Amino acid sequence: MITTLTVILAVAAGQAAEPASAPAAHTPAATAPAARAEPRPAKAAAPEVLPARFQRVQEGAPALRWGEPSRCLVRADTYYRVQCDDATKRCLVAPDAELDPDASPVAQLERAPGCDGPPLTTNDLTSRGYAVVPALAESPPGWYRDERQRAMQVDFDLNARYYLGGGYLFSGGPWSGNAVVAGGGRADRPFTWWNAPALARLHFLEGWASADGNHGELLVFGVDASRVYPTPLLRLTTFFGKPRRFDPPLYFGLWAEGVRMEFLETRGGKTFDRTMFVAGAVTVDVWRSRDLSDFVRLRGGAGYEEAKGGEWSSFVPVGALEGELTLGRGGFHHLRGAAQVEALVKSGDSLAPGLAADRTRLTVKGEYEVILFALNNQPISLALQAKATKRDDVPDYPTGWIGQVGAQLRFSLWAPPRRDARTQQSL
Amino acid sequence: MLALALALALGAADPCVGTDELGRSFRTCFAAGRGLELSLGGALGEGPGDRAAGADLSTGLALRWRSDTRTPSGRPEWMRDMAFLEARARFHGSLDDPRTAEGTLWSGLFLRHLAEPFLLIPGPRPIRLPFPFDVGMAIDAGSVRWASAKTGPETLEVDAVRGALLLDVSRHAGASVRRAAFGPEVTWSVRFRDGVRPVQAIAPFSAGRLELRVESADGLGALSFTGRAGWLLRFPAGNGAFYDARLGAERVLVAVNDVPLALYAEAVARGGKLDAGLEGTVGVRVGWLR
Hints:
The complex is a heterodimer. By secondary structure, chain A is mainly β. Chain A has helices spanning 46-49, 122-126; strands at residues 71-75, 78-85, 90-95, 98-99, 105-107, 116-120, 131-134, 143-145, 151-153, 160-171, 177-193, 196-210, 216-227, 236-238, 244-246, 251-265, 271-288, 295-307, 312-327, 333-344, 359-375, 378-391, 402-414.
């Protein structure tokens, strides 16, 4: 069992000055009763593995464990941080600083709490039989330290970000495609819903526009929420042979959007615009990951929209099959897709000539986004998109299938590590 | 006596509180970039669309919020400046005769500072390459510019959203430089004018933005510059270049009940596919909650 170095070492308290990053207060461990452990002979090799001057951390060195307290250790005015395992009598010791290329300390450690003082000495460890192992300082989940102990984020949650991007979209139909600019915010928030874990997915100011200004889409705000069902809503028991129980995936959730705008150019060069002012739906997750971040679901609901600045309005029942999936250790690969059917009914009297009272929009779209690199811990990603639509709700517009494919480079701000990001175990 | 001793103790503890020879305390520095600002001054020059000319009255309002963050070891991490309901108006003669006005519902400028900026190539063993800039983003949402119908058709220009990716070089420029950033900008705006079909304009990263802000450590003086220029794609027609720049300076001269009163000066230049204007404003500004 791993613990902080117990207090046998507290006897050395006050033998050296406080390190810059170390709080002066004693930790609970520093007053634990294990201080009465028997002293053991010192190991002569210890000073060699823990030099008086820092060295760059070696490849393969183990990392201190995140979330466990680290004790300060001083050797010849050089400060380290240490975590000891009482069971194996092994202490992991890492420089308590970021290093320059010559292994000189240049800054305090980022993304690590200060070590607990007062500082120990190597003799406090070796005289009690602890082996000293050079190591890497601990880092939080989703972060990585290099041999100079500089921290960098290597796990990104693209479901918590705002991005701006640009790229090119090729299109069939009357528009052949153009450069596009895109942006969008996403914030997934775990919360408790009826005494069960749940996840809310918020979308804000999400959309794109073509460089010629003739095509685009903008969602002002959207939210949907999924919930864990500790007690299944539906249980099936079969009695063919040995009785068995099946829990069908019946995970209900809610979905809503406020103000989704679309504008496009018709065959005659005129602008068509529509605004879905409000839409709501019930979702049923067919599959989802344990933390609810990935899912495949069915969505059914309805919305209200106006076209051409309010010339006519429609009630729009909607059905969709959609999903999101994150792949890779660092959350670098993302798959998103949807197939949606919208039926437009109950329009006003001023419907454009040539449009039927009942109209449909069919949309099938998919997207693959991969993180290419990161600038100052902010990911730059490439998104490949494909979309096909078939619609008869736009006057003077093709009613057959129209395909679009495109690619975008996206710069994301925020994007913290995912909630289940791993911690670095070694260099 | 106890109150006096407490006041003296507080004054000694707060570097922004001075004490005179009678033991009375007063604030000597202020938190720039936050609080409620009210401005009143005189404007000179050509307003947009010739709607204002000569000497006019200028007013301004802004609610600013600054919430910087630091790493556990004390390094600056996020530099976050926001403004809510920032508005300016120009009046001809009296407050009954507004000629131009502009406002922004919300604007934010976020810069993330690192000890050593870098470019990370992901992989089993990530590769870290040096990078000379900090990065950030600026977003303005709900900006409007209005020109009255007094001397021409009434005009309303709505910048629904503006966003810029920023590279910041202030780390190389000294502690008083809060930001010195530049980067590409995307905008989407709609212009409404009496008797004319609305004109949409977008700049799909075809514009650039420059942000500079210098502040004295005591918050008494500040100099700022925001410049935007580039190419606008306008629908239904009329693509072209534009520029929009604002230079401002402010110096706190007195404080009333520890509320700073500053002298400020601003210069605005705008043109190209935007309504042309070149005007300067000088006046006084009150800053609460700084």
